[in-house]
Amino acid sequence: MLSGIRIVSFTHFLQGPSATQLLADLGADVVKIESPAGAFERSWSGPDAFVGDASVFFLLGNRNAQSVSIDLKSPKAKDVLLDLIDDCDVLIESFRPGAMERLGFGYDELAARNPRLVYCSLSGYGSDGPYRDRPGQDILLQSLSGLAKATGSADGPPTTVGASIIDQHGAVLGAFGILGALMGRERTGKGCRVESNLLNAALDLQIEPLAYYLNGFRGERSTTGIGSQYYKAPYGIYETADGHLCVSITAPATLAQVFADDWFATVAADDEYSRREEINERVAKHLTARTTTDWQAEFTAAGVWFASVNDYEAVINDPQVRHNNSFIEFDYPGSGPVRVLGHPIRYDGVAPNLRRLPPQLGEHTTTVLSSLGVSDDDITALAQEGAIRVHQP
Fold this sequence. Notes:
The protein is of the alpha/beta class. It is about 35% helix and about 15% strand. The strands form four sheets. A seven-stranded mixed β-sheet has the order 8-7-6-1-2-5-14, with helices on both faces. Strands 9-10-11 form a three-stranded antiparallel β-sheet, covered by helices on one side. Strands 3-4 form a two-stranded antiparallel ribbon.
């Protein structure tokens, strides 16, 4: 879908590489610019997770891209990069605000050279403002945005989510903004600057509860474990006789039927929210009386909304996850088989192909520079000077 669109990526960590991977999956020609030492995610992985010498953190977010390893502080290297950017459609960067300007690759300078350029900046808090120089990291934004304080029970501490959801949503918003800017360019012939930051991404994930709060509706964390300040009960994860089960909003009449308990019929429709703690406590008591499997059968028959509470092993083997082919596997050089999440969207029922493995550092330096007209002798000289790094298989 994006064949013919060239993207130059100055990204590292998760937000930037994940955004470019979404676009690369759709056929964009992504050139990842890395220092001679390599992007941060090549040498770091959450639980020290490496398959052979390859970081899982790198492998999960850099497929379908090319790697050009180049010293951004080298004047000769800068000239080569400017030639590359002059010929590209999109530049995406996730450096600290001001870093690209100091390197001579700021938006104003590049837009003057290439007015059709879509320039996307991904940051923690935005390109200006009092927090622009603060470190932007997922758990920090979960806390700052109110998400942690809104999660958990009333008698427990603020609770963060066990995944980097802010990073990933920031990536999706960045890719969305780039696609919007490219569509706008088709009409106007002119590119623009796109900005996505983790703070806005964290707030966007809370579009519903924040709207309630902004319009005067105050909620409190539940004393009995309801999963949201603003939802009626049941809404959360409950103990059964042998495990746990997630149950979502269900009318009192249905609860009266499935639990054979006329107490629920005494709850008027207007009282469902104000009496939610009572409802939740009674639901929780009933659920401990039978096994998870028993309740799943009962709830299916009664039309109650419920779900299993899976660990990752159960997720991998879940029949719908398997049907959706959510994971892909490939052999990575020097590492062997690697499994990661694939592209999350289907187009006419088909997911985009894996065209390129996550690149070796500098794997495409020679190819890309040659396409810009740099001679073999000059490439050799740049490599000898340390201005570029050429991959040696």
